[in-house]
Design a protein that fits this description.
Structural class: alpha+beta
Helix content: 40-55%
Distance between the termini: 67 Å
Signal peptide: 1-19
Keywords: Signal
Number of helices: 19
Strand content: 15-25%
Length: 442
């Protein structure tokens, strides 16, 4: 019996199914695209001089910079080499050079033990089905393997080098990215009849435009380093997605799992959280006399996303941001993390929070932010729920948020559905969620 025909047919069928399930973005790989930088679209106009002065006076805007030259003088990981940024733009060489602080952070992150532990977990973990109320959930759990193959860490390092040969970063017009999207990852099939998988990280061209304003030969300012850390975290986030697809492919597990110790299925957040202890960092931009201040940084804890998205912003002083641009931080990262020496809520007092006020229509704007210097400025809800020593910030604020929501609910001005319906990446945990007691009557 000739087995060639059925084997070939099976191979072609598998290739076809893989191709059909591979995400495809409607963006051509035209590396010579022209990008028009309209800075009015890049910088947000917030008429808030008093807020800027408020942050500046507390050290959230500027801090002395030290150790940066030595940090920037080290090498860049091959994943981030200039050849991995193929856009043929007029200032691409200059922008790439300007990105060096961000690329150095990503490099140190990839070399760190905490990142290695996460990469090992994802590559060698075991997928486990999850059942909710007796029904199969839409996500699986990735359980850490009890043991790893010999020289597993060397294998991870070699895999990162292999991924570097298949990964490209491209600048994409913001209109093609979608509102509020800074970057995304997607795999593709390339190579004609016998394709291989390529990996792409598309970055909004608004970042390219902002980086054009910085000069790589100039001294970096505190606000520039905040922006560089923001860019670095964005790249790390997408690399977390890329690593899962590189390790497991597209066809077998089309949906990302959640790691066995985390509340949401979002591996980009997970990777950043494993390294920095926060899953994201963003910037607020303030209009000041003569221009813009490229603003104060704030971070988010992964637990703030589930089971209900809690709109808590924890502001990061410039001294915390600049710790990530020092060799000492990375050489001692596991110890510093274990001793909570990088925990903003622990090492800075008073801690500055940004709390979004609940609104009856479920939408939030910049005018709905309440800035706090101390825990006791959020009304009776904070007084009724004092923070217990050692209690995680998010766990404490969830109590405060539920208290405030109940006040508005009783007044008839709070739409509960926007805050208490499960998010897409937490659907598999619905049965674990106990809603606030005041919702029992609804």
């Amino acid at each position: 019996m000739n087995l060639t025909t059925p084997i070939l047919a099976g191979v072609l069928l598998a290739w076809f199914l893989w191709a059909m399930m591979t995400p495809v973005r409607p963006v051509a790989r035209q590396h010579g695209i022209a990008i028009s930088c309209n800075m009015n679209a890049v910088l947000v106009d917030l008429p808030s001089q008093h807020v800027y002065q408020f942050f500046k006076g507390l050290g959230y805007y500027d801090a002395p910079i030290s150790g940066l030259e030595a940090f920037l003088g080290r090498d860049i990981h091959p994943l981030l080499h200039r050849s991995n940024f193929p856009n043929d733009l007029p200032d691409m060489d200059s922008v790439y050079a300007t990105m060096r602080p961000a690329l150095r952070i990503v490099t140190e992150a990839l070399k760190s033990d905490v990142a290695m532990d996460w990469l090992l977990h994802v590559k060698y973990g075991h997928h486990r089905k999850v059942f909710v109320d007796g029904k199969l959930a839409n996500r699986q759990k990735l359980v850490k393997a009890p043991t790893h193959p010999p020289r597993a860490r060397d294998t991870i390092r070699a895999d990162l080098l292999s991924l570097a040969k298949k990964l490209t970063f491209d600048w994409i017009e913001p209109e093609q990215m979608g509102k509020g999207v800074g970057a995304w990852f997607w795999p593709s099939l390339e190579g004609g009849f016998m394709p291989y998988t390529a990996y792409h990280i598309d970055i909004s061209a608004s970042y390219y435009c902002q980086l054009q304003l910085f000069k790589s030969g100039d001294d970096y300012t505190s606000q520039q380093l905040r922006y560089q850390l923001h860019v670095a975290i964005m790249v790390l986030h997408e690399l977390g997605h890329a690593w899962y697809r590189y390790s497991w492919g597209v066809l077998r597990f089309p949906k990302e799992p959640f790691l066995d110790h985390e509340p949401i299925a979002e591996l980009g957040f997970s990777f950043v959280e494993a390294i920095l202890g926060v899953n994201g960092i963003d910037l607020e931009t303030f209009q000041i006399e003569g221009g813009f201040a490229l603003g104060v940084a704030y971070v988010v804890d992964i637990e703030a996303h589930a089971p209900v998205n809690i709109p808590l912003k924890l502001y990061a002083p410039s001294a915390w941001v600049q710790m990530w641009f020092q060799e000492h931080t990375w050489s001692q990262l596991p110890q510093l993390r274990a001793q909570h020496q990088l925990d903003i809520a622990t090492i800075y007092n008073p801690t500055l929070f940004g709390l979004y006020k609940p609104r009856d229509n479920g939408y939030l704007t910049t005018n709905d932010t309440v800035f706090l210097r101390t825990d006791d400025e959020y009304g009776d809800c904070v007084k009724n729920h004092p923070r217990i020593p050692g209690q995680k910030l998010v766990a404490w604020f969830r109590l405060v948020w539920n208290c405030k929501a109940e006040e508005l609910y009783n007044a008839g001005t709070f739409d509960i559905s926007w805050y208490y319906e499960p998010h897409w990446c937490t659907q598999q945990l619905v049965s674990d969620y106990v809603p606030p007691a005041f919702l029992d009557a609804t």
